[in-house]
Design a protein that fits this description.
Elements (H helix, E strand, L loop, with lengths): L10 E4 L2 E4 L5 E7 L14 H14 L3 E5 L12 H18 L4 E4 L3 H9 L4 E4 L9 H8 L2 E5 L17 H18 L7 E4 L8 H9 L2 H4 L6 E2 L5 H7 L7 H13 L4 E4 L2 H20 L7
Parallel strand pairs: 3-4, 3-10, 4-5, 5-6, 6-7, 7-8, 9-10
Antiparallel strand pairs: 1-2
Length: about 300
């Protein structure tokens, strides 16, 4: 397995773009063009509304726009390639033309990813970690797109039906190591890979909390790690708040992820999470720069 030396700065290549994390984590703003996503399903079904939201996220400080056209909420039913492309392409093309930010496409289908990349996407956010489509690995290698490899136990249809782990962190680590090996075997470069432990994807409350408590274990694999905690059910359970009122709880989880080394934060509420990330990153940077000073 190729890893990045802990002494060298992490870089992410996505097509012709190179992302550095020297200024802190990147914010990936969520743009779901689905009728049934758990948080914002049905809110951005028209190109006009979706483009308006993408522009708003840009203005609020997003670094990446992540567009998804198939819901992966617990119990969601799959859709075919034709329907996914029908929802996705008009929005992706409009956002690419009007918003000067990198675009990520949230899909498990290689044919959908190929069309999205042709339309301007440079990142493939694959919740199946290349397991959903045997052609996805070679597509990513061929196009040079970045790829997010996420852990999920089961499928969206079944993942919350009594997921079980012996030690959730060790099992997710082992899975991610194996998927990196698969990606590299397909010809994907280490600099194209992002890892995601998959909060809420086949995880119970205690699993999500343990993954967050030990989040820095994933950063030690040597790749940028994405934290997708925004508005998740475990935050709702802790705060007793409905989906749309989980901003403060999300900020707490985001703060922990940033302190423990997250490089990309996937969020619905860009403005407030930008403030959260900025403050926590500044504290973290200050702490690192003063290591050893107090002991001198």
């Amino acid at each position: 397995m190729t890893t990045t030396s802990s002494s060298s700065p992490l870089l992410l290549t996505a097509g012709s773009r190179t992302f550095s994390f020297e200024s802190g984590p990147l914010l990936m703003g969520v743009l779901n063009v689905t009728p049934d996503s758990f948080s914002d399903g049905g809110a951005y079904l028209t190109v006009e509304h979706a483009l308006q939201h993408a522009r708003q996220m840009q203005a609020e400080g997003a670094d990446i726009i992540d567009i998804g056209a198939e819901s992966s909420r617990p119990g969601a039913q799959p859709i075919d390639e034709t329907e996914e492309l029908r929802r996705l392409l008009p929005v992706l093309e409009a956002v690419h033309d009007a918003v000067p930010l990198p675009i990520s496409v949230d899909t498990t289908k290689a044919a959908v990813a190929r069309r999205a990349i042709r339309a301007g996407a440079t990142i493939v956010n694959d919740i199946s970690a290349l397991r959903g489509d045997p052609l996805m690995g070679s597509l990513v290698a061929e196009t040079g797109a970045a790829v997010v490899l996420m852990h999920m136990q089961g499928t969206p249809q079944s993942m919350q039906q009594a997921p079980r782990y012996g030690h959730v962190v060790e099992e997710v680590l082992a899975f991610l190591r194996e998927r990196v090996q698969v990606a590299i075997a397909h010809g994907i470069k280490g600099s194209q890979i992002v890892l995601d432990p998959g909060f809420g994807f086949g995880k119970l409350q205690e699993h999500n909390l343990q993954l967050l408590a030990e989040f820095d274990a994933f950063t030690k694999l040597g790749y940028p790690v994405l934290a997708g905690v925004s508005r998740k059910q475990f935050i709702g359970n802790l705060t007793q708040q409905p989906v749309q009122e989980r901003g403060y709880g999300t900020a707490g989880a985001v703060a922990v992820a940033v302190l423990k080394g997250a490089r990309i934060i996937r969020v619905h509420d860009v403005r407030s999470m930008r403030d959260t990330v900025s403050v926590v990153s500044a504290i973290s940077c200050h702490a690192r720069s003063h290591v050893g000073v107090s002991n001198a």
